[in-house]
Task: inverse folding
């Protein structure tokens, strides 16, 4: 683990989504609609273990979705769900005046749908999109978190909000979360992959434990 920063009252918390706030894997849910879910899961696992570049893995997975009817994509996004306890953590943070953002290589429609289902809101979502042409997915992917990395995204959000980067918390689990974990004031691994754990200040394995950590670290 990297050296612990001193205790701070964080004003901005950045969450990963797939594997952190949610145990749903959006590309797999989409792949179940056209029989490519097993291929999706294999590519995702390789990316999360840092065996393949994230951008390449995302493009490979999205290419498998070419021709999927958009109504099928919408049905898959309806299945995206927050992890038990995640909505409570988000609500507690926002009630405490903390700026809450989601930085994900997943898809904005799925994130928005999961939040809507739970009746919670965040301050910002930075996510990717799946273009549609003629009511079918094109197999391409667009957005800021394909080649762009989460440290860049966190820097932008921090600048917009006007907070010091040292007063930020990042919560994630996979290799594509490493950039934001490495620059945040407090890096929290949520049941992180082996390649990610050394870059975390601390590790939790449940939303209940995460809420307790936030109280201990004066985030709440």
Result:
């Amino acid at each position: 683990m990297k050296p612990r920063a001193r205790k701070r009252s964080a004003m901005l918390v950045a969450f990963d989504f797939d594997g952190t706030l949610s145990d749903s894997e959006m590309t797999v849910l989409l792949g179940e609609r056209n029989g490519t879910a097993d291929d999706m899961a294999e590519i995702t696992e390789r990316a999360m273990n840092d065996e393949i570049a994230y951008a390449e893995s995302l493009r490979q997975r999205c290419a498998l979705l070419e021709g999927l009817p958009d109504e099928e994509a919408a049905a898959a996004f309806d299945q995206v769900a927050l992890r038990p306890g995640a909505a409570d953590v988000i609500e507690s943070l926002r009630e405490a005046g903390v700026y809450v953002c989601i930085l994900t290589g997943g898809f904005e429609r799925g994130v928005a749908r999961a939040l809507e289902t739970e009746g919670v809101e965040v301050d910002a979502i930075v996510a990717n999109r799946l273009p549609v042409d003629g009511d079918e997915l094109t197999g391409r992917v667009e957005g800021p978190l394909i080649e762009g990395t989460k440290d860049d995204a966190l820097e932008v959000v921090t600048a917009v909000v006007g907070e010091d980067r040292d007063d930020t918390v990042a919560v994630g689990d996979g290799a594509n979360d490493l950039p934001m974990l490495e620059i945040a004031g407090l890096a929290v691994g949520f049941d992180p992959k082996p390649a990610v754990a050394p870059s975390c200040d601390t590790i939790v394995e449940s939303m209940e434990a995460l809420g307790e950590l936030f109280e201990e670290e004066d985030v709440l």
The mean pLDDT is 91. Residues 12-24+81-216 form a domain with the Rossmann fold fold (CATH 3.40.50.1000).
